[in-house]
From TrEMBL:
Keyword terms, alphabetized: Acyltransferase, Ribonucleoprotein, Ribosomal protein, Transferase
A GO term from the CC aspect: ribosome
Organism: Cytobacillus firmus
Name of the featured protein: Ribosomal protein S18 acetylase RimI-like enzyme
Domain N-acetyltransferase: 1-149
One Pfam family hit: Acetyltransf_1
GO molecular function, a single term: acyltransferase activity, transferring groups other than amino-acyl groups
InterPro entries: Acyl_CoA_acyltransferase, Bact_Acetyltransf, GNAT_dom
Length: 149
């Protein structure tokens, strides 16, 4: 297994992963051809400094992904934060260390970018994900809130 930044040709595989669970199936549109909204969003991610999709690759297959965004800030004496979103591991590869290795890669990138912390949000319904994040050392230190339009 190795890691790399996503390119546009990876979008089909990424959206397949995002849609491949109970919550994602309700949120995503994994279809052929892939809806244009995904291409537009990917182009915006690539264009923004400090924003990337990291892939876990086994052979030629995309088996995991996450979005890592480095956020400059004034709070905490100008500390940068790393935000992780859109975490998925192929169902066939879960429990095999893929997610942990993917997070270690993202954390190493965040440290190399001089981020002072890594933060993420996770749906309250994802009990397995909560256990996984706790095992990696993440703490539920804040209450997250969203305003959806």
């Amino acid at each position: 297994m190795h890691f790399r930044k996503a390119i546009e040709e990876d979008l089909q595989a990424i959206v397949r992963l995002l849609a491949d669970d109970e919550l994602g199936a309700k949120r995503e549109r994994y279809e052929e051809p892939l809806p244009e909204c995904y291409y537009k969003a990917f182009k915006a991610i690539v264009a923004q400094a400090g924003n990337q999709i990291i892939l876990a690759i086994d052979g030629q297959a995309v088996i995991g992904c996450l979005q890592l965004t480095i956020i400059p800030g004034l709070a905490r004496q100008g500390m940068k934060r790393a935000q992780i979103e859109g975490v998925r591991v192929d169902q066939r590869c879960r429990g095999k260390g893929v997610g942990e290795a993917l997070f270690k890669e993202a954390i190493a990138i965040a440290k190399s970018e001089e981020s002072g912390l890594v933060q993420l949000t996770t749906d309250k319904q994802r009990d397995d994900a909560h256990r996984f994040y706790n095992k990696l050392g993440f703490m539920a230190s804040h209450e997250g809130m969203k305003l959806i339009f």
